[in-house]
Amino acid sequence: MIMTRWRQVNHCFPSMTRQSPILLVLLCLCMVPPGESCSKEPGDFVLVDYPQLLERKQQWQQQDPKNRPEYDAMMQKADRVLGLEPLSVIHQSITPPSGDERDYYSIAPYWWPDPEKEDGLPWIRRDGRVNPDTQGANSDHDVTLQFFNRVNSLGMAAFYSDDTQYSDAAIELLKAWCIDPTTRMNPHLEYGQGVPGLYDGRCFGIIEWLKIEQLLIPIHLMWANEMIPEPTYREVVKWMEDYLHWLQFSEKGKQEGTRLNNHGTWYDVQVATILLFLGKNDEARELLESVKTKRIATQIEPDGRQPHELARTKSFTYSKMNLSAFMRLAKLGDKVGVDLLGYETPDGRSIRKAEAFLNSYGKGKKKWEYPQL
């Protein structure tokens, strides 16, 4: 595989990594035997433009004055989390309905105790109004975002600096979250965005993992730099495979995939990102191709409006959020030869139209005509 070839070449010619990343990639390709796939194993670089990252790494390591402030800011961010204890869903103060502390659990943010009921149950929905009691230590959402952010900060610092203290810290985080049997999160979101008195969990909780790319890219890069022991890496990959299987085949996962608003769009982003991380490029390509008819044709009007988002109490916020998901899908599509940004339905629906519609209200050009708390 191309990853294996890269590691072999990097071991034999370490200076080539810094001096000629393009040549290095070409040499790796030439070393792949006829008929051997270059993108079937986890670890192959599809999520990132690897030669570009190597070039940036070379500039930063040569202390190019134009790039040092960005590099220094990145390292300072990593230093702030370097000595912190590993994170786990078991450290939160709540207990999931299953009774297993290793299950992810969160409460739907727009739901509140019913003031007309003595016990407040079942909770009632107030769209757009966040209940503070669903945040912080009462939810695994916040600790998950911290986990993503810390691994990202440490992993990127390790890649760009070649300093193993950062990768070692990132590995401890990954072990606690994905491997250690006493602290690892069970690879599903069955109890995401539950509603007291109504639901133990709902499919809508899946959107709380929309930033999973922050986790997967640094894992890729640390693996490329031989900063993760292979057994640890394989365990993390297995966890991602199990989580992906839940996303694709569980009842809640399949439900989320049918949503015709930002939940469905971000579900596709998450599944496509994990597929590419795992080297399942054909599956990712098929999913991204389906975005044309499944998402663009059903969620965007010919004039660029997104009606499912406009129906919300924060219509502008959710319109932007859904457009961000479409833009992310377009970038993922570019990696596997699917042009989503240039696609338009026969009646004129497209991501570009959605972008133009929102831009027409930017910088006070027009007054937003829809609900926005």
Question: How would you portray this structure in words?
Answer:
It is built from 15 helices and 4 strands. The chain is mostly helical. It has 3 domains: 1-77, no CATH class; 82-258, Glycosyltransferase (Alpha/alpha barrel), CATH 1.50.10; 270-373, no CATH class. α8 runs parallel beside α11 (262-277) and α14 (315-335) runs antiparallel to α15. The radius of gyration is 22 Å and the shape is globular. Mean pLDDT is 89; it is low at 1-19 and 23-43. This is Alginate lyase. Pfam families: Alginate_lyase (PF05426).
Helical proportion? 40-55%
CATH class of the largest domain: Mainly Alpha
Q: Averaged pLDDT, please?
A: 89
Query: Largest beta sheet, briefly?
Result: 2 strands, parallel
Write down the secondary-structure element order. Answer: HHHHHEEEHHEHHHHHHHH
Described by the principal axes of the CA atoms, the overall outline is globular
Task: Give the termini distance in whole angstroms.
Answer: 52 Å
Helical segment count: 15
Query: Which CATH architecture of the largest domain is right?
Result: Alpha/alpha barrel
Low-confidence stretches: 1-19, 23-43
How big is the Rg? 22 Å
Structural class: mainly alpha
Q: What's the domain count? A: 3
- How would you name the CATH homologous superfamily of the largest domain? Chondroitin AC/alginate lyase
Annotated CATH topology of the largest domain: Glycosyltransferase
Keywords: Lyase, Signal
GO molecular function, one term: lyase activity
Domain Alginate lyase: 93-368
Protein name: Alginate lyase
